[in-house]
Design goal:
- The chain is α/β, with parallel strands linked by helices and 212 residues long.
- The chain has one domain (4-133, 172-211): Vaccinia Virus protein VP39 (Rossmann fold, 3-Layer(aba) Sandwich).
- It contains 5 helices and 10 strands.
- Strands 1, 2, 3, 4, 5, 8, 9 and 10 form an 8-stranded mixed β-sheet that branches. A two-stranded antiparallel sheet has the order 6-7.
- The protein is globular, with a radius of gyration of 16 Å.
Length: 212
């Protein structure tokens, strides 16, 4: 499942902090069809549109999609509210699918559905770019949160009043490699840069560029 809290965050409050690798631009052709999967309010969608791509953006958060649709600079992008694990796109539709911190918003069964869906909607030899936050060496924190989440690496981010804001998963590299391998995708490149969290802290990350 997608952690429910992600559906209700206000559009402009949807975190958009994971890094992006411009290496994916090497695989774009004129008029490439690109999916910004988990697009939030369209920050990355606009970037691809500026490169001459035909861009679609989907998110499960209605507030974020509403914000994206209201932005006149994004008027040529086709935004819609969709469950990324079960989209309405045809088979072999996209040249490129970009996913930033979307797998983190789901439990393991949903992550497997998501990467299978990415495979389905990618054209033969299409490109999937996955960016996710990695794990840090604070085992006690992960173990403590696992008592509530049921999974090591999944953490609960709280509001100032200590209520739950959202849940997100920090990945070991091997977790993402296993998802990619089981989906039948080939890893073309891997980077492990530091990302910046919503609180402004530096955090290790993973960026995989894969091919169908």
């Amino acid at each position: 499942m997608t952690y429910e809290s992600w559906k209700n965050i206000e559009g402009k409050d949807v975190p958009s902090t994971s890094g992006f690798s411009e290496k994916v631009l090497e695989y774009l052709k004129p008029n490439s069809v690109v999916l910004d999967l988990g697009c939030g309010y369209g920050r990355l969608s606009g970037f691809f549109a500026s490169k001459g791509c035909r861009v679609y953006g989907i998110d499960i958060n209605e507030n974020a999609i509403e914000e994206a649709k209201k932005n006149p600079e994004l008027k040529d992008i086709e935004f819609s509210v969709q469950d990324a694990t079960n989209t309405n796109f045809e088979n072999n539709f996209f040249d490129v699918v970009v996913s930033q911190a979307v797998f983190a918003c789901m439990d393991l069964p949903a992550r497997k559905k998501l990467i299978s869906e990415c495979y389905r909607i990618l054209k033969p030899s299409g490109i999937l770019c996955v960016s996710e936050f990695g794990q840090i060496d604070e085992n006690a924190k992960y173990e403590e949160h696992a008592k509530a989440t049921g999974e090591y690496g999944t953490v609960i981010v709280k509001n100032p009043d200590e209520t739950e804001r959202f849940r997100t998963h920090n990945f070991a590299k091997s977790e993402l490699e296993k998802l990619i391998e089981e989906a039948g995708l080939k890893v073309l490149s891997y980077e492990n840069p530091d990302f910046t969290t919503i609180s402004g802290n530096s955090h290790p990350g993973h960026i995989f560029i894969c091919q169908k």
